[in-house]
Specification:
Strand 1 (about 1-5), helix 1 (about 15-25) and strand 2 form a beta-alpha-beta unit. About 35% of the residues lie in helices and about 20% in strands. The chain has helices spanning about 15-25, 35-40, 65-80, 100-110, 155-165, 175-180, 180-185, 215-230; strands at about 1-5, 30, 45, 85-90, 95, 115-120, 130-135, 140-145, 150-155, 170, 190, 195-200. The chain has about 240 residues and is α/β, with parallel strands linked by helices. Helix 3 crosses helix 5. It has a single domain, classed as Alpha-Beta Complex (Spore Coat Polysaccharide Biosynthesis Protein SpsA, Chain A). It has an 8-stranded mixed sheet with strand order 2-1-4-9-6-11-8-7, with helices on both faces. The chain has 8 helices and 12 strands.
Length: about 240
């Protein structure tokens, strides 16, 4: 299976983990991460202020979030250009769990195809709308509400085309965009346990910084809770 590891060139903190991923994941290659500030300066991205789709996204996109989204779009485009059936896309702070990975890999091998988008989350939280299959400790299911974060996912060729078509203009982060199955017409499945850990803290923290003043934190939390409630009103159904 093709595998793309999104990595910011020159990031010495994460380079050793990338080397481990290249050794562990067969067929993996490094996909250079897009620098959001450079893309903005070059006019290489079309943006809207959270109002392209409903529900409205209440926060402005930062350069790091823009770069992250464009990096995933670049992977989707590679899948399409190479006419790959599907590919694994991981971020450079992902660490596979060797004990769980065989079960996760077996589910991927049995179910991944051109129309797939299968999340391998590092954290639990999604509630199943329908169970598809299980292998050992791992279970493949359709979540009612798609979870956040994009540490690892399997994306099929036709799924990539749908996501690319729906994201020519950006108005929210990539994980929030993927939640919107009612916009992308792309079902999103999950394998849990996903067989992965997220090493963000161990590797120097997030590359996406969203700092806010203390006085604005309460407002952000209120807006975030309202937005999530609106998303929850649009569940996936079997």
């Amino acid at each position: 299976m093709r595998c793309f590891i999104i990595h910011m060139q020159g990031d010495e903190n994460r380079a050793p983990n990338v080397a481990r991923l290249l050794s562990f994941l067969a067929g993996a290659e490094v996909m250079p991460a897009v620098v959001g500030r450079d893309a903005l300066a070059a006019g290489a991205v079309r943006l809207r202020a959270g109002d392209l789709h409903a529900p409205r996204y209440p926060f402005a996109l930062g350069p790091g979030e823009i770069g992250c989204f464009l990096s995933h779009r670049a992977c989707w485009q590679r899948i399409v250009d190479e006419n790959a059936d599907h590919a694994l896309i991981v971020e450079d702070d992902m660490a596979p769990d060797p004990a769980l990975w065989p079960d996760v890999s077996a589910l991927i091998a049995a179910h991944a195809g051109p129309d797939s988008y299968i999340r391998l989350p590092a954290k639990p939280g999604e509630k199943p709308a329908a169970i598809v299959d299980d292998r050992g400790a791992a279970r493949l299911f359709l979540p009612r509400v798609v979870g956040l974060q994009t540490v690892a996912q399997v994306v099929g060729r036709r799924a990539a085309k749908r996501l690319l078509a729906a994201s020519e203009t950006l108005d929210r982060p990539v994980d929030t965009f993927v939640q919107m199955h009612w916009i992308t017409n792309q079902p999103v499945h999950t394998i849990w346990p996903g067989g992965v850990r997220e090493l963000t803290g161990e590797l120097g923290g997030s590359t996406i910084q969203n700092k806010s003043r203390a006085g604005g934190r309460l407002r952000r939390e209120v807006c975030r809770a309202y937005y999530r409630a609106q998303v929850a009103r649009r569940p996936q159904r079997p």
